[in-house]
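Hey, I'm writing a tutorial for new members on how sequence and structure tokens pair up, and I'd like a real worked example in the thread rather than a made-up one. If someone can provide the structure for the chain below, I'll link this post from the tutorial.
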Amino acid sequence: MITDYRQKLRERYIAASVMPAPEPWQPVLDRTTPIGGLLGIGFAVHPDNGHDLVMVVSSDGHGLFDAVTGEKIGRDRDPDPDTSTPDAHPDLTCPGLGPIEGTQVRIAGLFGGGLHSTTPDGWTLDVVSPEWPHDRVILSADGGAHKGPAGGAWWHVFHSEYSELRTAGFSPSGLTLAVATSSDLTLWTRQRLHYND
């Protein structure tokens, strides 16, 4: 049996429309990059400019994106079959490519693992499923309490209706927010952390 509290919370999530993420979060490019057969994603840091990088593992190989600009900066259409998916390693990693070649990148998605659900300055990300199997991604500035109406201290930023959600979360730096489904990658970025701004 569902409690009154849970029923009201479920109704609040269902009533919330998808809305833009609040300042300082900005969508990267047009927000959604199509990637068929996406299996998972992971984060790394560009060794030259310090930008967050997103590594994508799909059934068509590996890709590497600059999370600030959205630019694809690396592609391997034929990775080594022994390391092409993260389930080949107990720590769910795949070998980096392009500027992070020679490093292992932890991948979250179909095979398990996870991305950061909080940032150092207090943002929280939750995945809720009040109408399973459709997942909603909730960004909040209230520590994940989701009190009050959407758009106040929490925002429904993504609704996975047409593809299976693989993972959602923040980069370790807290400057990038990523949502990956079986068919696309959606990114938001910000320039710096904001403490008590």
